[in-house]
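[Discussion] Sanity-checking designs against the backbone

I'm trying to build intuition for which residues belong where. Below is a structure token string of 468 positions. I'd appreciate it if someone posts a full sequence so I can compare it with mine line by line.
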């Protein structure tokens, strides 16, 4: 995990007039809006006795008061009032009293927080043109994955997993599992990867939107800010002008859990009623990835490629480009020292802040240690070895089917089923002893209809069938 990265802390719509607590890199933080409505972020740990500031209340002067003894802090982390000694300047009562505060930006409907002591050095938040384009409509979703954030990211980066996990095979090729030619362009704080293929979209709305075998161009981009992966797919086929564009933001809650946030944009069927279906359809793929990520071992974030890891030519150029970007942050001394991290519930984790850098003394809680570039233990990407398979003549007969699997793989069966909120309420309202049966029937019916989502409408249809 790295400091001096702009991470997504929340959807802006969720930061209203109450403080909002979140955890990132194992550190507890709190967001709140000041008197002007400007979002602020400070450590959630009151420096007085460690109370949770998120339980406190906001004052009209834009300060957040601790729920225990009422000390008030502003968005810069300065203590402005000690109520029991309110006639004195807090700096006279307790010289040096303060807490860590972090740079915040509200952009594209997201609250971004630069978790580190040098926001000027952090890679800037990238442009998200669809957010300001009236022709596009975006729908948001967030969920927690029980895996570290590199693992989460990797379930979506490489191209080989597309046919294997999602059933999106590259049909124009002799070997439909082989990644098509893709150009990976590294830039300062991210990369772009572009490929063309004539994959068939899976069932549902997407398959109705384009002729079979039409080629589509996919542009995948990754940015360090937000640990954001974006995919832009001309879902109606090349030249159709109909795009499905997703942004996936990953914020490490700690080294084992990740907050995954999504904005799914589209410039077709932009009626609001289509939002749910659009989110659900995109989430089918996300949940196939989630299933893979959560079962991968060992648990706990990788910090770089394994020295003896298996990396193949071409297939892994995206993965290794990603590690190259991480290497750059490590070289700047921004990687947290994993060996010194304790359990966040027992050992407070404080992310170094700009005020701490300017004035390192007088802090109640120590900041997490970062690793000096020279102390890094990870293997460098340039030192990994792999076979250049393109330079070697194939020696096996071209039997890409390699016999059919015993049980054909249907990606739909591996996607996690989702229930919409109202459908869940229906289940909860039913007598407990019949709930498992309703759930089983509904999920079976959903899959039979080619979807992984259970809606109220589906429940009602099933009920009508039974009663009538
Ligand atoms: S613990 Fe916050 S004011 Fe005492
Ligand atoms: Fe994926």
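Best answer:
Here's mine. Compare freely.
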């Amino acid at each position: 995990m790295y400091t001096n990265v702009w991470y997504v802390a929340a959807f802006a719509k969720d930061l209203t007039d109450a403080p909002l607590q979140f955890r990132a890199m194992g550190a507890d933080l709190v967001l709140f809006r000041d008197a002007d409505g400007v979002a602020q972020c400070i450590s959630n740990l009151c420096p007085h006795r460690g109370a949770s500031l998120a339980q406190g209340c906001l004052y009209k002067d834009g300060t957040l008061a601790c729920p225990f003894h009422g000390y008030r802090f502003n968005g810069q982390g300065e203590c402005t009032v000690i109520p029991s000694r309110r006639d004195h300047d807090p700096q006279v009562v307790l010289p040096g009293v303060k807490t860590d505060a972090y740079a915040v930006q509200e952009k594209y409907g997201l609250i971004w927080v630069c978790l580190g002591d040098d926001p000027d050095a952090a890679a800037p938040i990238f442009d998200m043109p669809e957010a300001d384009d009236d022709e596009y409509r975006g729908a948001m979703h967030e969920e927690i994955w029980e895996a570290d954030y590199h693992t989460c990211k990797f379930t979506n980066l490489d191209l080989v997993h597309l046919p294997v996990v999602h059933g999106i095979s590259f049909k124009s090729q002799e070997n439909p599992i082989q990644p098509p030619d893709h150009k990976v362009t590294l830039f300062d704080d991210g990369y772009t990867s572009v490929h063309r293929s004539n994959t068939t979209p899976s069932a549902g709305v997407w398959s109705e939107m384009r002729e079979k075998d039409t080629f589509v161009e996919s542009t995948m981009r990754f940015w360090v800010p937000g640990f954001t992966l974006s995919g832009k797919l001309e879902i109606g086929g090349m030249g159709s002008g109909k795009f499905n564009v997703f942004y996936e933001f990953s914020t490490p809650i700690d080294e084992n859990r990740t907050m995954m946030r999504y904005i799914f944009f589209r410039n077709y069927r932009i009626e609001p009623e289509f939002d749910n279906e659009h989110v659900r359809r995109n989430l089918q793929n996300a949940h196939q990835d989630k299933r893979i990520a959560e079962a991968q071992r060992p648990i706990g974030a990788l910090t770089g490629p394994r020295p003896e890891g298996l990396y193949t030519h071409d297939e892994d150029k995206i993965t290794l480009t990603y590690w190259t970007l991480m290497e750059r942050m490590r070289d700047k001394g921004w990687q947290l020292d994993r060996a010194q991290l304790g359990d966040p519930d027992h050992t407070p984790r404080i992310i170094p802040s700009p005020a701490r850098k300017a004035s390192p003394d007088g802090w109640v809680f120590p900041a997490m240690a970062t690793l000096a570039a020279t102390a890094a233990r990870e293997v460098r990407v340039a030192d990994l070895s792999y076979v250049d398979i393109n330079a070697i003549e194939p020696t096996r007969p071209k039997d890409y089917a390699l016999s059919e699997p015993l049980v054909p793989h249907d990606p739909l069966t591996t996607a996690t089923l989702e229930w919409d909120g109202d459908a869940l309420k229906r289940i909860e309202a039913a007598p407990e002893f019949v709930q498992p049966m309703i759930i089983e029937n509904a999920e079976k019916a959903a899959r039979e209809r080619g979807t992984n989502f259970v809606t109220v409408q589906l429940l009602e249809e099933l009920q009508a069938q039974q009663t009538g």
